[in-house]
Amino acid sequence: MDEGLLNELIEDTTIEDIGERYREVVELIGIRKFILLSNYARGDELYFPKVENVVSPARNRRIKKEFNGYNSKELADKYNLTVKQIHNIMKDEPIAGQMSIEDWMNSAGANPGTDDPA
């Protein structure tokens, strides 16, 4: 269908033209976006993940930023998680202020693999 004609038809579409079961979605996103979403799906059913799954990467970044080594319980309460979940989020993060073994060896002037200083 010609895009101009489609735009005219979208403008003429009312909420009453939309099936009863989809009206709540239309009220959330509007008729134009609903029609664009319908065009995208082309009759296929769409799966929408739970909000928690969508926002968890952003939540985890915030937890990593706010974590100080002593505030696991506070972060767990704030983000409605368990302390164990906070620790799982932090498990691959280096402890703030702790040197890696490589950094320590370089700062000590040691030559790795030998007993001789660099």
Structural class by SSE content: mainly alpha
Q: How many structural domains can be distinguished in the coordinates? A: 2
In the predicted model, the low-confidence regions spanning at least 5 consecutive residues are none
- Shape, principal axes of CA atoms: elongated
Key terms for this structure?
118 residues; mainly alpha; 2 domains; 7 helices; 0% strand; elongated
Give a verbal description of the structure:
The protein is an all-alpha fold and 118 residues long. The protein folds into two domains: 3-41, no CATH class; 49-118, no CATH class. The protein is built from seven helices and no strands. It has helices at residues 3-12, 23-29, 31-41, 51-66, 72-78, 83-90, 101-108. Helix 5 crosses helix 6. The longest helix is centred in the middle third of the chain and has 16 residues, at 51-66. The radius of gyration is 27 Å and the shape is elongated. The protein starts with a helix and ends in a 10-residue tail after the last helix. 6% of the residues are buried.
Write the layout of secondary structure elements.
Blueprint: H1 3-12, H2 23-29, H3 31-41, H4 51-66, H5 72-78, H6 83-90, H7 101-108
Quick overview of this protein structure:
It is built from 7 helices and no strands. It is an all-alpha fold and 118 residues long.
